Queue: 2 jobs
Job 1
Amino acid sequence: MRRSTTVLLGGAVAVALALGALVGGVLAESPSAGPPTAAPRALADQALAGAAGGITSTGIAGLEAQIRSRPGDADLLTQLGFTYQLRWRETADPSYLPRSEAALRRALEARPNDANAVLGLGSLALIRHEFRKALAYGRRARLLLSGSGRPYGVIGDALVELGRYDAAFAAFQRMVTLRPGLASYARVSYARELTGDPVGALAAMRLAFDAAAGQGEATAFTLVEIAKLELALGRPQAATRHARTALRIFPGYPAARLELAQIEAARGMLGRALAESRRAVDAVPTQQAVALHADLLERAGRHAEARRQRATIAVIDRLLQANGVQVDLESAVYLADQRIRPRQTVELARRARVARPSIYGDDALAWSLARAGRCREALPLARSALRLDTKDPLLYFHRGYAEGCAGNRGALREWYERALEINPEFSVRWAPVARAALR
Amino acid sequence: MRRGVLLLALAGVVVASVAAAAFVGAAGPSGATASSHREAPLIADDPAVDNTDLYAFVSPNKPNTVTIIANFIPFEDPAGGPNYYRFDPTARYEIHVDNDGDARDDITYRFRFKTTVSNPNTFLYNTGPITFQTDPDLNVKQTYSIEKITRIGSTQVTPTGTGTAGGGLRVAPANIGPRSNPVYNLTKGVTNLGGDRLAFAGPRDDPFFFDLGSGFDLLGLRPFNPFHALKPPANAEAGVDGLKNYNVHTIALQVPKTDLVQAPNANGTIGIYASTSRQAMRVLNGDGTVSNSGEWVQVSRLGNPLINEVVIPIGQKDFWNASDPEDDEQFLARYRSPEPSTLLNVLYGPPVMDAPTTNRDDLVAVLLTGVPTLNFTGNTKADLLRLNTAIAPTANPNPLGVLAGDFQGFPNGRRLIDDVADIEIRAFACGYGPILNAALGLCNLPPNDTLSDGVQTNADNAFLSQFPYAAIPNRGYEHTGHK
């Protein structure tokens, strides 16, 4: 009891401090964000020094110092803009995002149409889930970088989230044809995963891992993705090994911590999952980590603690929004899970789907409609969410729920069975519901 | 590619390399947000296949042979966990040789690698002292094969190989510290292929030397601080080697000259470049199946030093890396009107002289066709390192190479000791010096023939007098970090 209260407090404090850092100022104050996130940042610096060497080993502080003496240097500013984004990947601290934007905009002022700065703004728009904006930046970068594969990464990622899958996969094809490597292999892997081919996705992600040699965060990223795919293919031990290796390569990597917790949960080892999710929340209180931890606490019957954890999610969301990250879709799914204010949740999901008309946009709206009891409206959207044949048990579960809600008892059973077949513990919260419904 | 910093300094265009476009992360560690939004990295920097430098010279201790050294993976931190740095087993590493002046490959040596992890449950690179290369304590091992491809076909030159790509030859291990490597033999990892042919692959000290720190700062040449347009610093200072203490991954070959030059000659001028390729693939097949086989795509290339950094503009770097040297005519304008010359003129005042910024056919000769009477290979313009094998090695090589009248050095091939940064800076500034001015009519505007970054030697471990010549890797144990 006491321990997890401390954890919760630790998380809340970290969030609050990060908020403070955000308010504290953007680009101008360089090493300012100091104390609050010093620990993960120091870790990241350490890992980077070993992994990437070169410029990154001089770190953000070094770049900022150089920029103070040469404030109009577009190259340094672009570099700094990208380095902030890398730090966001490494630490999940969204206060890096406005700094990245400020640096990239200053770079573009110093040198209009700088291809890398444009690409950087495209990448930033993706991080913030502003996919139409990202698409525009990607296309602008394509004009400036003929023969380069990089703009197609931004373009393809944006098109995926805009639900334009044929065009997205064509962009990824162009990218991997122009420039095979980590970035394009990882995108091929995702395209295959989306289209229901985890085996092909794993093959591509293994190539991405080999191509990532020498880059700490990227190596850790590919290992976490391999872990997810191994888990989806029913090989939890291999999944655990890869996630642990990711943590060795990049100590404190938030995505790896979260994945370890998810793997334990998927194996039905709830005690170990709870321990891992607590460590994840303790390290970096991300929305996903807190939500998983809360679900696990709930499952363990520790309702009051779960409630306190959930209270921080709204804070995290506000922090993300304050840094320009659109979280409507994620919030809608979460609120529908909790069945908090169903009518408003449907409206939120509807807005989210306009911004992201992807299979996950369809799913979010279908799920919130079904949870609000609007079953006939939900069903066609739940079907549409599966139009790529994605083997995602949560999509299956939502489909089954919508079917059941619309009175199709047989279809409910069928989809619940398929979800449990992929993974009997596909969700801490919903797998037991599916099992109970089938009894 | 690795020296994007230089590019910044010299050409004033962005560095696609080291970090700038390096991590175009599509989005965050997700942690924060969408499980539904995949956040794959979008990386331009690709160290595992990044060519850093190419060297080619007539072997000083075996003058009937030529040694070719190609380096990859920039800025390896010796203490950064040796398991981070390895050749990419899915990539092809190649050395290409043109021996008839058409800039097309007559001979290609293709290196392919394989990684073996003895015990996947430990992530230690080694589990005890590494005393020899087949030591079971070496947990992460790489092996390689070399395939020689000629116009009339391809032959496997791996004597002990199984015929499969990556098999047979052993990659030298990392140099970790006194416990892991009680002894690190100078020639550890050298394989004798028979018939005066030697091969090497593994980590080495980066032989390149240049004042990255000052060069990065608006083409600062510390000895020439007093003449730079921007001050401070106003006083001349000694240069600082920005590559000190860093390692690279090296592939090296020593073969008889007659393996390379056009038969039946004993000597000739050959053009060389190194490249790396990766395989494209189908994202999705029409029938819903997937396949991993696709075209091999060149992702990095290197002939003469610093071309990608200072000659090719930012928007064309990826395109340049993917293109063939035989098509380099398309970049001709970048050589004839070089941006570094313009920048030098802007940034340095008297007594440094303004260099011509157009019609620089001298640079076309030095970098794209070879210099007549020295290493000219014909009118086909291609960024190749050109080596006239008939020029015998000297006992007293001069780091300024041809500029100092030492015709065995850069730009006639390139030796490890050659100060290519100074040579190229002087070339861009029209400071070829009195010897070349008299002998070949190349432009010389004193005192531009004394321009220098102030770093004249590689200050790390000593070069060897025998193959692979490159110094053993810096050891992690002594490594104290970089500024």
Job 2
Amino acid sequence: MDLLELARGPALKVAVVVFCVGVVWRIVNIILLHYRRNFNEPRNGFAKSVLGGIKVAGSRSWPHPEFIPRTGAGEALGYSYHIGLFIVILAFGPHITFFGSFVGVRWPNLPSGVITIASVLTFTLLLAVLFRRVTNRVLRMLSNFDDYFSWFVTTLVIVTGMMTTAHFGGPYQTLLGLHILSFDLLLIWFPFGKLMHSFYIFPSRSLNGALLSRKGAAS
Amino acid sequence: MADDPTIGAMLDRHGVSRRTFIKYCTAMASVLALPPLVGRAIAEQLRVAQRPSVIYLSFQECTGCLESMTRSFSPTIESLIFNIISLDYDDTLMAAAGAQAEAAREKAMKDNYGKYIVVVDGSVPVADDGVYSCAGGRSAVDILTEAAKGAAAIVCVGTCSSFGGIPFADPNPTGARAVSDLIGNKPIINVSGCPPIPEVITLTLLQYVSTGKLPDLDEHLRPKVFFGNTIHDRCYRRPFYDEGKFAKSFDDEGARNGWCLFELGCKGPTTYNACATIKWNNGTSFPIESGHPCLGCSEPGFWDNGSFYSALATPHWGKAGEVRPADVAKLAGAAAALGAAVGVGSAMLARHRQKMTVGTPDTED
């Protein structure tokens, strides 16, 4: 069995299983945790609280005007590389073939040239994000292994993907094998690190928003 | 071995002029990607070279490789076997049969001990004492071992003799092996392909005869001059891959426009061969030009590498290789159920621990 067969065969299967087990485990675990009984008289009803939660999920996804000069650059960096990741992951022909074989549906792809540009920009932005993390004193003190390793597995997939597309650094099957292996690593790490924010971010903001809205304190 | 002492003498007898011969050798050098002046050196070497005795052994195979070789245009098979080599044994092509044919093989081996070339076509079955491929009452593995002893080199023609090929495919009931798995003390050149390109077979032989040396080989013992690039690297449809234009089915607009066949399972990116450059039928075309994805037939284990029609960038697990959405859904569902059970268990444990430590009178379940 060569590297490519290992990567897209047993390694991928194990990664998918670990990903599914881990993600469901963590979500179920959070849902079933204790929550304090809320004895406050509700200011708003259930429907209004839910709507308020959705509104807060949107409003908290954008910096408050007052803070834009301080946090705008960081947020712009974050949004930019996330958009780049989405383009590279979901709009590249071979990726659509890959995910299509999982879900049974395919969608139109973007030209590979556009994907290449998006990949290079995303990689550059990821480097900038890391630079900001290690040079900003507060961010550096807040960061732990999880932050750096999550950054590493994400960037590794991008780098091996660019090398594969460019046929740079070895035979195509080796590079493709490394690329899929790096994706396998990302899948395995995903549920146990901060990459889980993909599942948590909007539900947690919405829940906080709904609770605040129930109290009439949502903004 | 032929009666004529050298290839040059043979050519003179047939009235082939020196100029014609040098032009022919220059053309060979060009195909082999060698500098033009090397053509002259090849000509000089070939003129004084003796026609080497070649013993062509056919084992567990379909004769497709030999069929392919007979369709070589440059050099032609008749030019090769009448002027360049002395084909002393080939049980498919030779007029003799039975004991006479075997006697010819034994005589050639004895007369040219240490100098003859063994060409092997087909894999060698070793299960059950090699009974699955026999000739003249002897097993293929016996015949190969005997022939290899006095050989100057072994040229494996086709994927079966090079890597085991289709007989080697799972479950490999005959215990098929590649020649290189069985013979370790002789120079071996693998000319893989199912079948190999005719000119790749004949030019590999010609190169060995004219230089007396093994060509540069890759990690699979294939001549780099023919197997140095992937089909994908030299494919005329490569620009469509770069543009992200893929045929999604064999009858869609992309297929009609000649777009890249990657998503239809083309193995061009992982297949090393000269199909896209030398092509087939005297340079007419190659499979991708006819609208079919490359099968990767010149690579080891190509028959077991999943469906020919599933793209390289797709999951590949299980016996059959091809993974369907329903298989993924089953696997993900089972994993999710396990995850949910673990989640419920760990949450219960956390609640219990919390109750034991701080008590939770004001909590809701």
